[in-house]
Amino acid sequence: HMPTAELQALDAAHHMHPFSANTELGREGVRVITRAKGVWLTDSEGEEILDGMAGLWCVNIGYGREELAEVAARQMRELPYYNTFFKTTHVPVIALAQKLAELAPGDLNHVFFSSGGSDANDTNIRLVRTYWQNKGQPDRNVIISRKNAYHGSSVGSSSLGGMAGMHAQGGIIPNIHHINQPNWWAEGGDMTPAEFGLARARELEEAILELGQDRVAAFIAEPVQGAGGVIVAPDTYWPEIQRICDKFGILLIADEVICGFGRTGNWFGSQTLGIRPHIMTVAKGMSSGYVPIGASIICDEVAEVIGMEEFNHGYTYSGHPVAAAVALENLRILEEEKIIDHVRDVAAPYLKQKWESLLVHPLVGEAKIVGMMGSIALTPDKGTRAKFAAEAGTVGYICRERCFKNNVIMRHVGDRMIISPPLVITPAEIDEMFVRIHKSLDEAHAEILE
Ligand code: PLP
């Protein structure tokens, strides 16, 4: 390798980083990741970093699995590319679609492939609008989503998302309506979590009545809001959302891009949260991030209605054979090595116990966790759920930077800190992660008090 400083200089000169300030300050301290194995990353200085985020919530089976590299190489030699646009198909895409249909709950039996989660959600926008069009209700084209949701970065998927900063850079497409998120810690006021969960769910009903039942096509949500800060809804929320979707006959889209493939302790977050979606968005953990691939998994009735006409949609890499073969191998490993059982029986209970023990720390007001995705709220006063006087995110950023220096990757969203480690993490590795997290929080606390 070139020396780190040279790599950093070239990176700064030519590479624009996503979701980053590409300024001198924003680029300061950029680390060059060179290798990874299991839950560990190695940088160009030889530092070993514990990845508490599984990359971007995606490396579910951990890094460095040779089997995936071998499958990719074999598939590249045999059939590196072919499309399925017209009357052609191939074995990897058939096998993966069949496997996803087998794993997905209910009658979610039909798969439309993409290269990731953003373009799968773009597919969903066209799918649900075409569904109602084909049923003779073309005005039924409004999709309801939630503030602070993340559904991707394309203009369509970020319109579904509720990130104000993204809307401010490029605007949003028409006929998307956002309701509030079920974030009790930040927005619950004097209500109990149960009351608040119901109130926030009923905003869906209010929105449907306001917009007109004959205008609303679908509701989209993540079972557990991830990039918004791992916002776990109160228990009353999802049953009420499901009741409302059933009552008004609107399509329910579960964005499982983070929650899918074991993250919540079941194959899909919908199973953990008791949701019955018509469409699921999947990506990330489907290939453990080894190759880019995403999909919409669609129920029988929606697929049948879409199939009435030509569906004018598709990506060059829809069902890419190499991506499909690697994803299939990843699913084989998840299944044969019983990694979701490991989550349920070993990793998640242990992580929950450690995570909730953070509540004794003076900075931590709330600790939420579902399976292998958790968040803590940082606060100057636990009793009143107060926010820091500094600009929102400042304290979160300080904690994140301390973690980074102490070689554990955690992410911050405003003043919440997040973890989402590879599902294969062992109790000993969780112990090591918490040594580093405690050290980082203590250092951040001291810095804030200075
Ligand atoms: N949906 C959710 C819930 C996500 O968390 C993400 C990415 O983080 C996406 C969609 C977008 O997926 P991608 O980055 O693969 O386009």
UniProtKB/TrEMBL annotation:
This is Putrescine aminotransferase. NCBIfam families: PRK07480.1. Keywords: Aminotransferase, Pyridoxal phosphate, Transferase. CDD domains: OAT_like (cd00610). Gene3D superfamilies: Aspartate Aminotransferase, domain 1, Type I PLP-dependent aspartate aminotransferase-like (Major domain). One of its GO terms (molecular function) is transaminase activity. PANTHER family: AMINOTRANSFERASE, AMINOTRANSFERASE CLASS-III. It comes from the Bacteria. It comes from Ruegeria marina. The keyword Transferase applies. Belongs to the class-III pyridoxal-phosphate-dependent aminotransferase family. PROSITE patterns: AA_TRANSFER_CLASS_3. Its cofactor is pyridoxal 5'-phosphate. Transmembrane segments: none annotated. InterPro entries: Aminotrans_3, Aminotrans_3_PPA_site, PyrdxlP-dep_Trfase, PyrdxlP-dep_Trfase_major, PyrdxlP-dep_Trfase_small.
